[in-house]
Design a protein that fits this description.
By secondary structure, the chain is an alpha/beta fold. It has three domains: 3-82 and 260-280, Rossmann fold; 85-169 and 288-298, Rossmann fold (3-Layer(aba) Sandwich), CATH 3.40.50.10800; 172-250, NadA-like (Rossmann fold, 3-Layer(aba) Sandwich). It contains 15 helices and twelve strands. The strands form three sheets. The chain has a four-stranded parallel beta sheet, with helices on both faces. It is globular, with a radius of gyration of 19 Å. The site of iron/sulfur cluster has 12 residues, from helix 5. Iron/sulfur cluster (SF4) binds next to helix 5.
């Protein structure tokens, strides 16, 4: 029996659902019940009737699923799949920053721990960050945590001043202007689509700026035939599968997130068989983090 069939059988038996982020390896993407970006997956985690959620992504994503579905078992197939960007925001430091700006609204990118979300007023993803910030009352101070580049991009787009944390995604930092310029020279007809986690001097070279969900939509609707893609390379598998007649070139070959590559089919099967690694969030933290996530989900 193939490993994919074993996963399917066990999934049915245990009433489990498999949520997979766009950056996962191709064979894991292929077994997804839902493949998507953080926002899609958060919504799905909220509405599923499954007893078990197997989250093929990184720790903060599985935490969101657990916060939105506290009565379900949420499993992360590899317990070491973390997010260095999320780890850059410490709850103690955020507490101090909030104390020096007591009236500020705290907006936490979903790439944060549950403890940070519990201190935030509202969350955002790369897909809805502009919308979330635009809805905040004019004149209010806003603390944006933890991604400085997404924050700077949103500040510019909304014409708002944000108090930025100094975090960054090490994978997106590898997408530097020099390598994008080389690719543009090599593929002059290609449309350059970059993720807003890229640094500001790279974003200047973009034709379009989107999170992964937006990239998929943009490529599907575009008349262009060639695309230079500036985000974690896992998305190119899905882009090629959904658009076989179009060509995709990575903006930077080094844009690989090691954490996103930890999940394999073997680990998914083992996770389902042994019911590991279960995500647990303290009773004090979970409801507070839930308020910030729910507020984000309520924004249209
Ligand atoms: S790609 Fe960046 S933001 Fe996404 S999980 Fe990896 S380190 Fe975190």
């Amino acid at each position: 029996m193939k490993i994919q069939d074993k996963i399917l059988e066990l999934k049915k038996k245990k009433n489990a659902v498999i949520l997979v982020h766009n950056y996962q390896i191709g064979e894991v993407q292929d077994i997804a019940d839902l493949l998507g970006d953080s926002l899609d997956l958060s919504k799905r985690a909220q509405s599923t009737t499954a007893d078990i959620i197997v989250f093929c992504g990184v720790h903060f994503m599985a935490e969101i699923a657990k916060i939105l579905s506290p009565d379900k078992m949420v499993l992360l197939p590899d317990e070491n799949a973390g997010c260095p960007l999320a780890d850059m925001a410490s709850p103690e430091e955020l507490k101090k920053l909030k104390a020096s700006h007591p009236d500020a609204v705290v907006v936490a990118y979903v790439n944060t721990s549950a403890q940070i979300k519990a201190q935030a007023d509202i969350c955002c993803t790369s897909a809805n960050a502009i919308n979330v910030i635009s809805k905040i009352e004019k004149g209010k101070e806003i603390i944006f945590v933890p991604d400085q580049w997404l924050g700077a991009y949103v500040a510019k787009k909304t014409n708002r001043e944000l108090i930025l944390w100094s975090g960054f995604c090490p994978t997106h930092m590898r997408i530097i202007p020099e390598v994008i310029a080389e690719k543009k020279k090599k593929y002059p007809e290609a449309c350059v689509i970059l993720h807003p986690e890229c640094r500001e001097d790279s974003l200047w070279l973009a034709d379009e700026i989107f999170g992964t969900g937006g990239m998929l939509k943009c490529v599907k609707e575009s008349n262009k035939k060639e695309f230079i893609i500036g985000t974690e390379l896992g998305i190119i598998y899905r882009l090629k599968k959904e658009n076989p007649e179009k060509e995709f070139y990575p903006a930077a070959e080094l844009a690989i997130c090691p954490n996103m590559k930890l999940t394999t089919l073997e680990k998914v099967l083992w996770s389902l068989e042994e019911e590991v690694h279960e995500i647990q969030i303290s009773k004090e933290i979970s409801p507070k983090a839930s308020v910030a996530i729910e507020k984000m989900l309520a924004i249209k």
